[in-house]
Amino acid sequence: MPIRELGSDELARLYGPWSGRLPADAARLFANYRGLWWIAGGWAIEAFTGVERHHDDLDLEVPRVDLPQLRGHLADRLDVWTASDGSLRPLLPGDDPDGSADVVLPPGCGQLWLRHSGAEPWEYDVLLMTGDHDMWEFKRDRRIRLPLSEIRWFHDQVPYLRPEVQLLLKAQGLRAKDQGDFDVVLPALDRARRTWLREALSLAHPGHRWLAAL
Predict the structure, then answer these.
(1) Which of 2, 39, 19 is nearest to 126 (CA)?
(2) In angstroms, rounded to a whole number, what is the distance separating the alpha carbons of residues 154 and 156?
(3) DSSP letter assigned to residue 65
(4) Which of 54, 50, 24, 18 lies closest to 39, judged by CA?
(5) pLDDT for position 133
(6) What region does 10 belong to: left with phi over 0, alpha with psi -120 to 50, or beta?
């Protein structure tokens, strides 16, 4: 089972607890970072709707190609671990001698966990965006693409993933919280963003039950 599909209690039992960071903590962490980053997951939904919801952790996202730059920013501050297929492995100094993100990542890895040390809780869950420095690509269907400039928006000077993009990412799981997020976001989406989500869902998940509401 993929790590992200485990419940919060099972995650804590197997891998250790999470610290419960907030968006303001992420903004401080990324102060003076020269690459792109944004908050995804449930916090992106809450920022857009203003409706409070439960959060297991704080999901951050950066372009996969920027992994070397991210590691440089976090050096001597937080340890970086790859999280892939239920396995965790630390990224150590010298793991990427040619500066390539793919040198150090296990096959299929799209997620990093950060913490100060093995004796302390996990601080941040970082998702690695498929695409390049200019374009976002939907990891399950590369026909669906957007310029990076169009997938972020700002709230209180903090960057967040656009809600319609976050819903597309949630569509496959259809957990109770995913349906709840769709229900609260939909009334706040304008026509253009509803249209984008409908077209993207039709490509990636034909017959998805959200299509009728869009």
Answers:
(1) 39
(2) 7
(3) G
(4) 24
(5) 86
(6) alpha
Residue whose tokens read 């496959």: 172
List CB contacts of 148: < 8 A, sequence separation 6 or more. Answer: 36, 63, 131, 133, 134, 135, 136
- What's the pLDDT tens digit per position in 78-105? 999 998 877 889 988 766 655 555 557 8
CB 70 within 8 A of CB 108: no
Determine if the pTM surpasses 0.85: yes
Distance, in Å, from the CA atom of 110 to the CA atom of 194, rounded to the nearest integer, reads 27
pLDDT grade for 136, boundaries at 50, 70 and 90:
very high
pLDDT, residue 148, reads: 93
b/e per residue, 11-46, with b = 16+ CB within 10 A?
beeebeebeebebeebeebbeeeebbbbbbbbbbbb
Match 């908050």 to its residue by tokens.
Answer: 39
The CA distance from 204 to 144, in Å, is: 8
